[in-house]
């Protein structure tokens, strides 16, 4: 078979073909093949149009067409949606607590105000196994146009202690110096470096400022405008502790962490979060072994930046009915815990199921009858930068961590790796926590005694 133009031509002897400008045509006794003309399938003549009759009946008031019902249902649903949305927004707004507050203090850090702030000076790690020695040295805390700076520095840079003495043969006794503020005059106030035992002088100095004994709240608000530090194994924190340990030693009397971070690069420490990650939590439990912070914590990460690049507002709102932390505004909450209902913190933590050292736990809270105990007492504010630690905040085997939490010589392992982590600490104030302002309010009108 052969093709020409749009015609399909059977094989035929050559004498029966006539070539034309339109292709090949059969001649002789074979009729020419032509394309069939298009014929319309449109209806011709009169035919029924029932939709016209329905429209006429509608106009005469004999009924409502389906199309009209569709319009009624469609627009009615939209109107109902607006009404329901408005009702839900109103009910939600009406449930938002808007307490009256009284300003306890506001500090924009033109100086370090001793009527507000005090120093906690010791070298024992504050129960976390951190490696710093906290001081009131002006190298570690000072104020400039940016605000308050809490800066970690190497001990060998700011004292007459030599690198060799860090490791062996030096006695640091803060009690003898008259500077230690800890009630534990032993481990927290003194250390002797010894290469045989592995004990070393704290290789880094930093600072810890608190409002203990000066400014506290039981229910209210706190807002701290701050910028976090850069540098591996730096641990900045804005947090609160009870003025009096009414229900027992930590964590039985509670702890409120408004904002904590890690100075490590977020990409290098992505498994748990570096300085691109912000953590808030409540610590509580009858004993330290069952601290239930993991039931009442939260984390917020930022993208393409981190909390050391600019200032953020780190906030706390706390009442008898709830507690939550936020970043910049109440709309960005890090964690929220409601105390409403009959469940108290003992039952919330399911501590009745725990056995520690073959013994059941004692319930220190339920006798108050308050669902928010132990978070029903006066708390004070703390600002600090710790370094490292052995309590799990920096997990083992993540981010080339140079020490092990269970090691008896963790501080020495940390110091021996200084050539790895110290180059990550910027010069100047970027390695420290910078605080532009702090505000603290108590719940209720000024002059109204707290419950």
Automatic annotation (TrEMBL):
Database matches in Pfam families: Glyco_hydro_16
Gene Ontology terms for molecular function: hydrolase activity, hydrolyzing O-glycosyl compounds
One record GO biological process: carbohydrate metabolic process
UniProt superkingdom: Eukaryota
Keywords: Hydrolase, Membrane, Transmembrane, Transmembrane helix
Ranges for domain GH16: 91-424
InterPro entries membership: Beta-glucanase-like (IPR000757), ConA-like_dom_sf (IPR013320), Glycosyl_Hydrlase_16 (IPR050546)
Sequence intervals crossing the membrane: 72-93
Family: Belongs to the glycosyl hydrolase 16 family.
Listed name of the protein: Glycoside hydrolase family 16 protein
Provenance organism: Hyaloscypha variabilis (strain UAMH 11265 / GT02V1 / F) (Meliniomyces variabilis)
